[in-house]
């Protein structure tokens, strides 16, 4: 009986972890998102090459941020004009660290580089303390905006 | 005519004494910036700050009239109390170490686990806690209401002499927002008014730099968490105190496994006078703190990535770091009469 309780406890625990919201997209969006690991896995992925702090080039696999913005109904593409040009994405990590991207930095109609929410590096899932999701900004000389353990993306208007 | 004149001047005096809108201008240091929020329904006023200061120092806010906020937050210790854990109204200790109240204006999550989003929300929690002041805020409000002293002060601050926990919290929050510390020798150094000693300068360099063995650069990278003009970031970290932490810390607030054993990164301003250190006050001295980060960080599943791998600072590097940390002691803040016990200066 004790073993049965233990087993059911473990199963519940496992279910609870897998059902946990991994990433929120909030703020100036038409559809706020609360995404679980399975939702994120199902989103389109791409691969980018970028140089990390170790000065070595790595292959990162992840979701282009623009895909998340599309899903949340952020004003991108044809809508990224006028006052929408003063909108920005505030990306927040588990520890509370925050970095900012202006929307045109994330929109392929403005920018030639693809900023991704990476979940793997060189074919391996990101390690604890870095993943499960990390922003990767190809071509950026200093990786200070490569924010680790991403938990939330909030779209705001500059006021 | 004279009677009218007297009546008019009396009305002016009365209006002045009842006004609650004398704005309090916070002296914001330019380097600290303006990334803070003052709730729209609790603007800073001279009357509100003055009232909050009385409340902060008044033992009426405790169950048996023995302790006040200032018992565990003493000005000469940058509003800490010198104990590993504080002693509450019942003689029992608190669960965690008393935090410094310097520069709370820029803090975005209060308490070691960040469970309060505003100072207004925070203020009533220690009041009600049985191991702190031990008095329900509603009862505290009734006690204050029965005095001759407080109702007129609430009237001046908030336009009503009907005392409520919310108004008490607002006044306390206003006073706490005034506790700005930005006049340490390090600040004077930035203004070219103080020359760092050689040891302090070496300590500053270690504090600010990231170690890069390939270039022969020694660095302790303290700024990663304690960077910026306030010497803290609004972040939560597991800094490797234990291999099997007992206190879940931030996880109790968020429910996230990744937040297990994370605690708020406190300010290092006035750090030389705010020991013992860490959320449980386990380190009595700065030497013990530096030794911890240099050699004794314990690995666990949520240990901060940047603390993995020992630093192995030399004994002279450790001394230099501590010399620098002493330049963050702001004696003007520790002795500012505006922050002192108003019952002693009345």
Helix content of chain A: 10-25%
Q: What are the low-pLDDT stretches of chain B, counting only 5+ consecutive residues below 50?
A: none
Rg calculated over all Cα atoms of chain B: 22 Å
Strand order of the largest sheet of chain A: 2-1-10-5-6
Biggest β-sheet strands, sense, barrel of chain B:
2 strands, antiparallel
Strand order of the largest sheet of chain B: 1-2
CATH C-level category of the largest domain in chain B: Mainly Alpha
Topology:
The complex is a heterodimer of chains A (159) and B (346).
Chain A: H1 2-18, E1 21-27, E2 33-36, H2 37-42, E3 46-51, E4 57-64, H3 65-72, E5 87-93, E6 98-102, H4 103-106, E7 116-121, E8 124-125, E9 134-136, E10 150-157
Parallel strand pairs in A: 1-10
Antiparallel strand pairs in A: 1-2, 3-4, 4-7, 5-6, 5-10, 7-8, 7-9
Chain B: H1 2-18, H2 46-56, H3 69-72, H4 119-128, H5 137-145, H6 150-158, H7 165-177, H8 185-190, H9 198-208, H10 223-226, E1 236-237, H11 251-254, E2 263-264, H12 286-296, H13 315-326, H14 331-335, H15 342-345
Antiparallel strand pairs in B: 1-2
Helix pairs in contact in B: 2-6, 2-7, 4-7, 9-13, 12-13
Question: Quick recap of the structure?
Answer:
By secondary structure, chain A is of the alpha+beta class. Chain A contains four helices and ten strands.
Question: How would you describe what is shown here?
Answer:
The complex is a heterodimer of chains A (159) and B (346). Chain A has 159 residues and is of the alpha+beta class. In chain A, 22% of the residues lie in helices and 35% in strands. Chain A has helices at 2-18, 37-42, 65-72, 103-106; strands at 21-27, 33-36, 46-51, 57-64, 87-93, 98-102, 116-121, 124-125, 134-136, 150-157. The longest helix of chain A has 17 residues, at 2-18. Mean pLDDT of chain A is 90; it is low at 1-18. Chain B has a two-stranded antiparallel sheet with strand order 1-2. Chain B has helices at residues 2-18, 46-56, 69-72, 119-128, 137-145, 150-158, 165-177, 185-190, 198-208, 223-226, 251-254, 286-296, 315-326, 331-335, 342-345; strands at residues 236-237, 263-264. With 346 residues, chain B is mainly alpha-helical. The interface between A and B is medium-sized, with 12 and 19 residues.
């Amino acid at each position: 009986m004790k073993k049965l309780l233990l087993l059911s406890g473990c199963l519940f625990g496992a279910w609870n972890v897998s059902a946990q919201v991994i990433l929120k997209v909030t703020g100036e969006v038409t559809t706020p998102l609360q995404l679980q690991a399975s939702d994120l896995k199902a989103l389109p992925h791409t691969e980018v090459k970028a140089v990390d702090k170790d000065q070595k080039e790595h292959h990162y696999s992840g979701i282009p941020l623009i895909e998340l913005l599309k899903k949340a109904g952020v004003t991108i593409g044809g809508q990224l004009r006028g006052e929408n040009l003063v909108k920005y994405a505030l990306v927040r990590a588990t520890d509370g660290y925050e970095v900012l991207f202006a929307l045109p930095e994330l929109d392929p109609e403005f920018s030639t580089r693809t900023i991704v929410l990476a979940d793997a590096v060189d074919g391996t899932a990101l390690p604890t303390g870095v993943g499960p999701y990390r922003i990767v900004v190809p071509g950026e000389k200093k990786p200070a905006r490569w924010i680790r353990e991403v938990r939330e993306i909030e779209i705001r208007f500059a006021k | 005519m004279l009677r009218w004149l007297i009546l008019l001047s009396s009305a002016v005096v009365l209006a002045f004494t009842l006004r609650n809108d004398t704005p309090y201008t916070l002296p914001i240091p330019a380097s600290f910036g303006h990334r803070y929020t003052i709730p729209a329904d609790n603007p800073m006023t001279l009357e509100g700050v003055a009232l909050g200061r009385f409340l902060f120092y008044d033992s009426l806010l405790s169950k048996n009239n023995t302790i006040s906020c200032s018992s565990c937050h003493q000005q000469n210790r940058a509003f800490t109390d010198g104990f590993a854990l504080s002693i509450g109204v019942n003689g029992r200790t608190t669960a965690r170490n008393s935090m410094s109240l310097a520069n709370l204006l820029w803090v975005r999550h209060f308490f070691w686990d960040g469970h309060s989003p505003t100072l207004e929300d925070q203020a009533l929690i220690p009041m009600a806690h049985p191991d702190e002041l031990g008095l329900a805020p509603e009862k505290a409000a009734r006690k204050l209401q029965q005095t001759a002293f407080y109702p007129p002060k609430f009237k001046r601050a908030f336009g009503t002499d009907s005392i409520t926990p919310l108004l008490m919290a607002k006044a306390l929050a206003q006073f706490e927002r005034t506790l700005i510390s930005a006049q340490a020798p390090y600040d004077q150094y930035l203004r070219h008014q103080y020359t760092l000693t050689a040891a302090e300068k070496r300590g500053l360099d270690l504090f600010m730099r990231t170690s890069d063995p390939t270039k022969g650069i020694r660095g302790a990278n303290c700024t990663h968490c304690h960077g910026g003009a306030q010497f803290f970031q609004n972040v939560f970290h597991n800094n490797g105190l234990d291999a099997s932490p007992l206190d879940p810390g931030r996880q109790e607030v968020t429910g996230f496994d990744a937040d297990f054993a994370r605690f708020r990164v406190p300010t290092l301003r006035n750090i030389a006078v705010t020991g013992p250190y860490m959320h449980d006050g386990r380190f009595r001295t700065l030497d013990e703190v530096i030794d911890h980060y240099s050699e004794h960080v314990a690995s666990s599943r949520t240990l901060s990535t940047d603390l993995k791998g020992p630093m192995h600072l030399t004994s002279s590097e450790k001394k230099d770091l501590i010399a620098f940390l002493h330049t963050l002691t702001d004696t003007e803040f520790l002795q500012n009469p505006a922050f002192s016990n108003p019952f002693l200066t009345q």
